[in-house]
Amino acid sequence: xxxxxxxxxxxxxxxxxxxxxxxxxxxxxxxxxxxxxxxxxxxxxxxxxxxxxxxxxxxxxxxxxxxxxxxxxxxxxxxxxxxxxxxxxxxxxxxxxxxxxxxxxxxxxxxxxxxxxxxxxxxxxxxxx
Length: 129
Hints:
Largest sheet: none
Strand content: under 5%
Structural class: mainly alpha
CATH topology: Cytochrome Bc1 Complex, Chain D, domain 2
CATH architecture: Orthogonal Bundle
Oligomer: single chain
Distance between the termini: 38 Å
Helix content: 40-55%
Radius of gyration: 17 Å
């Protein structure tokens, strides 16, 4: 019985460590206003068709305000990688995300900065929605 309790306790610790984590948007630092403004101009042209003008998703892609996208679960590099190389569907049933062609690394960084600032100011939504 002690062994079962120990195994259960370890399983709970492991599952907790693998969870999304704290979804407190206040932990995101204020972003560079110049990059936020640049990202705000680029986002509607490159991301909004799937992720929505308000970042809350569409029938083509998920909300970027979902708690799945907290920096501790999807770091900025994950966004950069998804834009540059695409992303296999792993949390949602929207299908794979194709790469977004024609954006420089500086433009991608501006978009990510805009997303993080929007997450910071609007907060996160529960997953699943």
